[in-house]
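User: Good morning. I'm curious how 4'-deoxy-4'-aminopyridoxal-5'-phosphate would be positioned relative to this chain. Could you predict the structure with it bound?
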Amino acid sequence: MKISLNGQLVGKEQAVVSVFDHGLLYGDGVFEGIRVYGGKVFLLKDHIDRLYESAKAIRLEIPISSAAMIQATKDTVAANGIGDGYVRLVVTRGAGSLGLDIRRTSHPQIIIIADTITLYPAEIYENGMNLITASTIRNHPAACPARIKSLNYLNNILAKIEGTDAGTVEALMLNHKGEVAECTGDNIFILKNGVLKTPSPDAGILEGITRNAVLRLAREAGIPTQETTLIRHDLYVADEMFLTGTAAEVVPVVSLDGRKIGDGKPGPITRRLLELFHEFTRRVDA
Ligand code: PMP
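Assistant: Good morning! Here's the predicted structure, ligand included:
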């Protein structure tokens, strides 16, 4: 495996960063997860734009242009011969002193890993996923905004642990107002009376790239969409529910906190959107 580290393709063993890197010491950095379909990096520009926006929000200046980042990503995928896989792009603050002051760091580290991908089990796409609501609320947007895809994922990890303990592979997170936010690594959608609904970015969520693609595909297919406030009751009485994410794509949800969603089977519009999404992955150019 060849890893891209600061523009150089090196072996796994040579791909190392300092123990003084603030990415490690403080989770001070940003990242992206991107899919590769048929050798093409899917929605790469959208992911790179989000990476640079995350970096800007934390006052991290990425030392290369976004065009160079796009090229380096494509080169890393090609160097590893990845047909269908996953790219992890990481930019850390770089090594510094033992202290939070970003002025005492230098040389942000740019890491690009192109690998194969582990998906949710096929059974989940067939029969749907069970979900629980975690007691851990999503980060307050005025504390550490979820819009920033930062290296500090403890908020999500704490909720994920609750899901794992309850025997689910994902967990729903509410925001500080008790409204539906998102899952630990996926956005959430429901269908109610033919309308596709999902929380808006101001619910304090990551604005998922798969989320945005699914909203677009739904509108093109004539399905009305709403980005709106949702509470758990809306979810319990939904006709259909699904999650979206780069790794997950579109995954049906059939129960939440022990309440059956709809008839307890993946719904017809969910299935249709999954098909439309698969078709989109084959159609879209890098
Ligand atoms: N929410 C969170 C917290 C995430 O980490 C992710 C990405 N795994 C998503 C939503 C989905 O975003 P995307 O579709 O851009 O992968």
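Residues 33, 156, 182, 185-187, 206, 208-211, 244-246 surround 4'-deoxy-4'-aminopyridoxal-5'-phosphate (CB under 6 Å). Residues 132 and 258 are 8 Å apart (CA to CA).
Let me know if you'd like a different ligand tried.
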